[in-house]
Write a structure and sequence with these properties.
Blueprint lengths: L3 H15 L2 H17 L15 E3 L5 E3 H5 L4 E5 L6 H12 L1 H6 L3 E6 L3 H10 L5 E4 L4 H5 L3 E3 L2 H9 L4 H5 L5 E3 L2 E5 L5 E6 L9 H8 L4
Parallel strand pairs: 3-4, 4-5
Antiparallel strand pairs: 1-2, 3-8, 6-7, 8-9
Helix pairs in contact: 1-4
Length: 215
């Protein structure tokens, strides 16, 4: 079975072969500008996870207190079901779900997509874990992950047929940085991995190892 990092590497190589050079240049430029801006650096290890309540893909309200009552929680923020790197990450998490459960943790994935779009993402990837809809990025903002897409990147996405605003049910074109947190049963963040490069994702195997040493 190929790993998440191997899947990402293969996708990036295909993208480099097929995508126009201007598109690749602008996307790389946006990533560098985001990194240099110093915004949305995310919560850190030792911080307390913000309390929240969000609807899952079926519209059921899920609270952070409910999640923590069952033990440690893995919280992963993804951009949306339209993002190929997000789908690779979600599928990898699904493949490792038994190991995640055996470690004693609960996995929850959060995106700014509407519940309807989240349901589509969940069904497309056959996800058996909780997928939450954070419309307006309110919870992602509490985790200090939200940034505004630059105008030139918005136009590039539109030209590529990606209606991010439509997936999110608004017109703000804000996204969270992809990020993964491990939270212990007291609500303290014991692991945080945030990256300005949207092609980077935390391998689920790494997170499982962290959970094994978390109560």
């Amino acid at each position: 079975m190929t790993t998440l990092l191997e899947e990402i590497k293969a996708y990036k190589e295909t993208f480099k072969k097929k995508a126009p050079e201007d598109k690749q240049r602008l996307m790389a430029q946006a990533t560098k500008e985001l990194e240099d801006s110093g915004v949305a650096t995310g919560l850190k290890e030792g911080d307390q996870m913000p309390s929240f309540t969000l609807p899952d893909a079926a519209g059921k309200e899920i609270s952070s207190d409910m999640l923590l009552s069952e033990g440690p929680v893995i919280v992963t923020f993804y951009r949306g079901g339209w993002c190929p790197y997000c789908n690779l990450e979600l599928k990898a998490c699904q493949e490792q779900l038994s190991a995640i459960k055996d470690s004693g943790a609960r996995l929850v994935a959060i995106s700014p997509e509407t519940p309807e779009a989240s349901l589509s993402t969940k069904e497309k990837n056959n996800l058996q874990f909780t997928v939450l809809s954070d419309e307006g990025n309110q919870v992602a903002d509490q985790f200090n992950l939200v940034f505004n897409m630059p105008d030139y990147l918005i136009e590039l996405y539109k030209d590529s047929g990606l209606d991010v605003a439509g997936h999110n049910g608004n017109d703000d074109w804000e996204l969270p940085k992809p990020a993964t947190f491990v939270v212990d049963s007291s609500g303290k963040i014991v692991f945080a991995d945030i990256n300005s490069d949207y092609t980077y994702r935390t391998p689920p195997e790494k997170v499982i190892e962290v959970v094994k040493h978390t109560k």
